[in-house]
Amino acid sequence: MPGRLYEDYFDLQLRFAARYAGLAAIPRREAISRCTNLRRRFGLADASGAQTWSRFLDTLPDGAAHEEVLERTMSFHELHARPAESPFGCFSYDAPDAQGTLRIHFMPGERHWADSPLGDARLPQRLSELRALFADVRRRHPHARRVRGLSWLYNLAGYKRLFPPEYVASIALPAFAVHLNGSSTWGQVLNHRQEVKGRLRDRVLGNLDATTMHAPWRAFPLPALSASCGISRFHESFG
Fold it and tell me: Is the pTM of this model over 0.85?
């Protein structure tokens, strides 16, 4: 992704965090951790990245102008980000937790930006990726019991058609607070070329006010939805 596109995306997230910090009366660095996915975008989401992430936050004094914060963010990203392509194309997964539930993710890489990764022409490719992913799960995690997802994409028919009917039937609003430190909500502000959607940017920033301060994910037009079912349904569909 060219730097300019990253800059627009980071600019929006930093403006959102600054507004949230003002509404919630918290330090900007806390708002950045709570309301942006920068840590994940920098490849620092796991425990091993905690110190590096903390060092980044230390470079962002509360009194700094937005332009300075954005420039420091861009510089840090250029130095530290290490984008990785998934072996399963647009999909990836987290290893099963203690209860045997694994989580799936959808994040198109640069090679998928030419056209919509959820368009009709790409349906066979997406299904092939899911077959490869669940073949890997069978080999490496034979004791996995359930599949779970959380994403704004479950609002889209083009995404839902990829999955078993039982999984689609389970789609619902989550019964828990939605975190903004991943792409389950933030992803909707980007088009398939990873460009920020101008009208959506203004809407998201405009919707963050005193009424949404305690649930900032509600500032986004499409809610992140959850889905879950037994993994056997996926093995039957993609076996």
Answer: yes
